[in-house]
């Protein structure tokens, strides 16, 4: 049912389906061991992505990555609870800081979708390296937009520019 909900909720379009799948993986992976989170997420959310034309490797890497990100994503975020307890800080404050510091981790699976060359190092090393540079620039811009001091306008410009670079399909 989740696969059909993702497909119908996205209207058969790839990027809305990607975002719905990411949300599904974050929810289903909450505080489940890594292997279980992956198996659960790939079995219920993976078919939606392959139905929309993604390769098996892209689908599995995307689902695996987002299932693991549930460890720093509220509301369950077990790693954050442990860290907050160690420093005796409000867990929600630590969760937001963890997500801001880890914003690049949320972007890399999206880069694997928008620039498939990123995961083709063995077959096309030049394109893969250029895709890595593109992804690095995008994640750096967004990361600085979230955590660097400065005016809100400059920070928003960095975030938007990074996201545009990330999702804009480039062929190398």
Our count of helices gives 10
Order of helices and strands: HHHHHHHHHH
Instruction: Give the quaternary arrangement of the chains.
Output: single chain
List unreliable stretches of 5+ residues.
none
How many DSSP-defined strands?
Answer: 0
Which word captures the global form? globular
Helix amount, in percent? over 70%
**How many individual domains?**
2
User: What is the mean pLDDT?
Assistant: 89
Distance between the termini: 38 Å
How big is the Rg? 17 Å
Biggest sheet character? none
Strand content: under 5%
**What structural class do the secondary elements suggest?**
mainly alpha
Short précis:
With 172 residues, the chain is mainly α. The chain has helices at residues 2-10, 14-28, 34-44, 46-51, 56-68, 78-87, 91-101, 103-114, 125-147, 152-167.
